[in-house]
Amino acid sequence: MPYYAFLNGKMLPSEKAFVHISDLGLLRGYAVFDYLRTYNRKPFLLQQHLARFEHSARELNLELPCSGKQIEGIISRLLSKSAIRTDCGIRLLLTGGRSADGITISRPTFAITTEKLIFPPESAYRKGVKLITREFQRESPYIKTTNYKNAIRLNPEKLRQKAHEILYCSGGKILETTRNNFFVFKGDTLITPGANILHGITRSFVLSFAKGVFRVEERDVLVSELPGVSEAFITGTTRKILPVVKVNDQAIGEGKPGKNSLHLLKLFEEKLAER
Amino acid sequence: MPYYAFLNGKMLPSEKAFVHISDLGLLRGYAVFDYLRTYNRKPFLLQQHLARFEHSARELNLELPCSGKQIEGIISRLLSKSAIRTDCGIRLLLTGGRSADGITISRPTFAITTEKLIFPPESAYRKGVKLITREFQRESPYIKTTNYKNAIRLNPEKLRQKAHEILYCSGGKILETTRNNFFVFKGDTLITPGANILHGITRSFVLSFAKGVFRVEERDVLVSELPGVSEAFITGTTRKILPVVKVNDQAIGEGKPGKNSLHLLKLFEEKLAER
Predict the structure, then answer these.
(1) In this structure, are strands A189-192 and A215-218 parallel, antiparallel, or unpaired?
(2) What does each C-alpha distance from A221 to A182, A183, A231, A265, B131 come to in angstroms?
(3) What ipTM was assigned to the predicted interfaces of this complex?
(4) Which helix (H) or strand (E) holds B162?
(5) Distance from CA of B159 to the nearest CA of A (A)
(6) Within chain B, which residues score under 70 in pLDDT?
(7) C-alpha atoms less than 13 angstroms from C-alpha of B233 in its C-beta half-sphere
(8) Contact B61 A104 (CB under 8 A)
(9) Cα angle A250-A254-A256, degrees, rounded to a multiple of 5
(10) What is the CA radius of gyration of chain A?
(11) Contact (CB<8Å) A148/B29
(12) For all residues of chain A together, what is the average pLDDT?
């Protein structure tokens, strides 16, 4: 069975979901989105994703044509219509819609798509991954816009260097990867940047239960601190908690997934099992 | 007769030009474009626009599926097919295309659309226009990407303040407006920023004939210089040379279109008549 999509009020197979070429989302990059996944075919952290999506929409003066309750209903219908046997990704997309003058918002285009989940290989969790750094500060870090130009542009370089992700840094501070948040451990203290980044939903989820186990600091993390950290990991919807063992040529801690990171991953899995 | 578009090898009425929702141009803002116009139904400065478009494509690792010569041919067919009696705008658009993983470029989407031209009101040339400044440096100023998020987001504020355009400034330097280049006159010296801006095709065209008449300086222009300039104007495909008489609350020169700016506009019109 194919994946289904909801587009401007209609339910249709994703293959048939097309947007007019004059849409501001395409012509002007004027769009916000959010992305979540299901576990056991139920949307995970849906309310949190909806809240962030609504925030992004407000920041771009885009009116959502559906309430949160209605979106929940649409997602539920999409999941049963798609008859997907496995878990899937769910993307919410809201654009400026078609515009007569290329600058004025009219009726936003609103879509919800269900998508195949793409995971890191299992070995990434066993061995940990490498990141490479690039100097970059996203334009509007607190808004989840569709601007991933830099991520796609740097992708070939990332593959060349056998890195799992690009770690954006700015003025000596570590920010986030192109699609994930970044954490380090110094001993039993968990530290993660809090400013000038997109606040990931997985990031918040991890912080919520990490606080009961470790000392937690949300503060700037300097690139120059990396030689002194004992562990590092990234968080994201399809990553959960993924250990980082190298940043550029700098080994992190002992160069293998750290015990605190793995403990948090275990707690993550337990939280999922409790649902 | 409707406007026509060329999309991935097909000629079709613009109303029927749709792009799949998984296109990286829409999902990730991964796209470059260029925009030109016709005069007397002939594309104006086409070679220059093509050269810039090809540069933008290269910078984003996007392969153009057509040669410049082929694009010329397509535009010519579009113009005759559209049977447009008046002049029109021509937009070239190249995106990352559909992507299986949302990050890897596959086969780019390439479109050429013909569009209704939208001009400033005639009174804007007679009275001059007001700009308002905003602190903003575009991410990749030398590449004509589709990222106009800031322009659209600030549009309501621009209208509220009865401004014609937003003038981006960064660290005390004047850069460009959301869609135009900025020039000032100090007496008979024409000055325009040259760094960290998109190099407009109209800007180059104006510079090419201004150099024979005025002393020309391409250099940083400071916001603090504005009280001392005698004239200002902006350039762009649909603006030609549009006098600026106010920036925020600062009157420019005598607060009316300047004689040197109007002289350049006259030369512009003469160049057009010569074609």
Answers:
(1) parallel
(2) 9, 9, 13, 22, 39
(3) 0.96
(4) none
(5) 11
(6) 1, 83-84
(7) 29
(8) no
(9) 95
(10) 19
(11) yes
(12) 96
